[in-house]
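Support request, please re-run this one:
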Amino acid sequence: MWETVCYLIILILACYGIYYLVQDLFRLFRHLPGPPVSMLVVMRNRAVDVEYLMRRLASWRKYQWVNLDVVVVDDGSEDDTANILRGLQANLSFRLVTLEPESPPEHPFRKDRALLTGLLYCHNALVWVVDLRKLPQGLLAEKVFRVFFCQGWR
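Re-run finished. Output below.
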């Protein structure tokens, strides 16, 4: 009788050890979420490819291991960029900040008004800045996506 009890205790302890071993192995392979990151996208006059860029960004966000918060700043666009972004905001998750077009800057710090305003709307300590104003208008949206979005966190 005592031998049977000893065998049962050894079996229980062995199963208990195997259970914790399997848990430790799963912890090694499970990806923990990364730090929260704000992505600041500043754009002007991008009506041609803004919808493509934002939809591509939304699909790309699903596969990233970081918690990504997207803030989009429209820096006084003279085309339909702001209207397109407002329409996309209903379906996609991002915050939109629209600035009015201004006259030529009198002060040297006024030229980065969109960047500084966007930084005020970012809630996380880490900020990834994507300034689409500096890219030529003729650049295809696919190339913009490859350069800025695909080289991020994996």
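The first strand starts at residue 36 and ends at 43. Residues 1-30 form one domain.
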